[in-house]
Amino acid sequence: MKLTVLPLNEPYLGSVRRVLRQRLENKGLDSSTIPGYIRSPTNALVKKPHMTLSQVNRQMDYVGWRGVELDYHTWELTRATLESESAAGPELDSAC
């Protein structure tokens, strides 16, 4: 199933980023590591765009993000952020 990317206005995207940042911090990530954490599934999705959440979690574990498992809602927030940023020209270090 292909996710349709709708244009998001900046205030809405900012809200999505804030919620994503909060969820990742609640999972134990330090705010300084969040941009790097978000880059990891981006790289995985470039190689295999139809990865399931389970596959993404295994890949994240494999590349060293052990102990931080994405749940469905955090994964969807991550995908929404990544896809909207890629449509607008990504600046992943400022994604969150």
3D architecture notes:
The protein has helices at residues 10-26, 34-47, 53-62, 72-88. Helix 1 packs antiparallel against helix 4 (72-88). It is 60% helix and 0% strand. With 96 residues, it is an all-alpha fold. The chain is built from 4 helices and no strands.
Give the topology, please.
Layout: H1 10-26, H2 34-47, H3 53-62, H4 72-88
Helix pairs in contact: 1-4
Work out the helix count.
4
Please give the radius of gyration in angstroms: 13 Å
Largest sheet geometry: none
Assign the structural class, choosing from mainly alpha, mainly beta, alpha/beta, alpha+beta, or little secondary structure. Answer: mainly alpha
Shape: globular
Number-wise, the strands total: 0
Oligomeric form of this entry? Answer: single chain
What is the CA–CA distance across the termini?
26 Å
Helix content: 55-70%
In short:
By secondary structure, the protein is mainly α. The chain contains 4 helices and no strands. The longest helix is centred in the N-terminal third of the chain and has 17 residues.
